Amino acid sequence: MSKRDELVAKYAADIKDKFGTSADTALLTKVTIGLGPSIYNLDASKVSGGDEKELETVKKNYLIKKLGLKDSPQLMDAIKSVMDKYGTSNKNKHRAVVYYMLCKHFKKESVYK
Question: What is the pTM for the complete model shown?
Answer without folding.
Answer: 0.96
